[in-house]
Each structure stands twice: as structure tokens, then as C-alpha cells.
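User: Structure with 6-phosphogluconic acid, C-alpha cells only please.
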Amino acid sequence: MQLHIHPTAERVLTDLADFFVAQAAEAIAARGRFVVALSGGSSPKKLYELLASPAYREKVAWPQVFFFFGDERNVPATDAESNYRMANEALLKPLGIAAAQVFAVDTTLPPAEAAAAYTETIRQFFGAEEARFDLVLLGLGDNSHTASLFPHTPVLHDASVGARKVFLTDKNVFRITLTAPLINQARAVAFLVYGQDKAAAVRHVLHDARDVEEFPAQLIAPAGETHWFLDQAAASLLPKQ
Ligand code: 6PG
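Assistant:
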């Protein structure tokens, strides 16, 4: 596990953008494609805008990149809450990514069916090979959730490799999330976390005793590499390096 800690969120974003470029080049050179699962929420929007900016857009062979989503809200793709909509506006549309390269959750279906359909989409994409994302981008909630693996939800103990529905009782909403076992098959996972409001969650996940019910992001331990891209504020409660 590698920590990449920087004084400001801007420096974190450029470091992660450089990492994304390097991971894409390595995957495309080795296997002819780069298969990435995008994170939702607000943190990654600036990363996606940076990757689509003149400073980075020419650094990646975008036609060989295939996009999945680590989780999705149970809303239409046009909804302001949609992770797909955010990524499409910040990254996919500005880069002119072909629809055939993008695999979004079909939220026109009821949650359980949407999860089953996404599991099948992933299985068909990887075919006979194991479903291994080259990179899974993740955020961290201030309650230590990641993707939509929320505290005290049954999906935390789901051993299946796929996508599952999650019901958030406090918000009375459904989400669809990749399961921890599927995320953990990834060649690399990169968390992007910045801001003081995430410092306690970062400490819980990276330093406190294992308690996946309370700190679900502790479930993430991929076969490959785990990277944390943090600003100093988010890392401020970690023991000094
Ligand atoms: C989502 C994300 C979720 C997110 C965290 C952090 O759909 O919301 O997948 O796991 O990464 O909630 O969100 P912020 O970046 O908005 O703080």
C-alpha cells in the first residue's frame, strides 16, 4: 500500500492524473486495453476535468480505454445525482469517448435487476478471463464507506464477484455497487481523498483496528496495488510518516 500525500488538493489531483496516465500506458502496452472503474461523488470531478484538459488529453490512448463505474445511484442517467452523468460531462463527452467504450449501470431497471444486469455486462466484457479491472478509482465517505459499500449493509459480507443493490435506510435510497471481492480482483486501486472532513475516516480505515462493519473501506485489499492519494488535511490524523 502506497501513500501519496501532498499539501494541496491540486497537487493530489496532478499526481493521480500522472498515475492514471502511467497505468493506462502500462495496461495498453501489455494487453491492448485499459479497463477502469470510475468513482462517483464530488471528489473525482476535478480529476476527470484535468484528464480531459489540454494538459492531459493527449497523454492517454483513449480509444483503448474502457470505462465502468464502481457504483451508481438509483437515479436516471440525466439526474444531477448520477455518477454516470458527472463522469460523462467532466470526462467522456469532452474526450469524445465512443458509447461502445462506456459501460454504465442501467438505472432504468429496478435496483436488483440493474445490479444483475451490470454483473452480466461485466461478465460478458471479460468473457472467459477473470474480471480484473486495471484500475478502480475510489473515494471515501466521512463514514468510511467506499463505492456504495456502506456501514452495516449486507453487501459488506457478499462474497460474490459482481454488482449488488444496496439500500441506505438513512437516505431511503437504493444504490448499485461493485462488491468488495470484485474490486479486490483489480490490478490496482487508487483512493482519492481530500479535505479535513475525511481525516477521521482515513485514520479509521488505515490505522484503527479492523472493523469492516464500521469502516467498510477496510475491505479493499486488492490482489494488486493499493494507492491512497491524499492531501495533508485528509492525512492529518495519521501517525506521522
Ligand atoms: C458515490 C461514490 C462514493 C464517494 C464517497 C465520497 O457514489 O458517492 O462512489 O463512494 O466516493 O461518498 O464522496 P465525495 O467525493 O463526494 O466526498
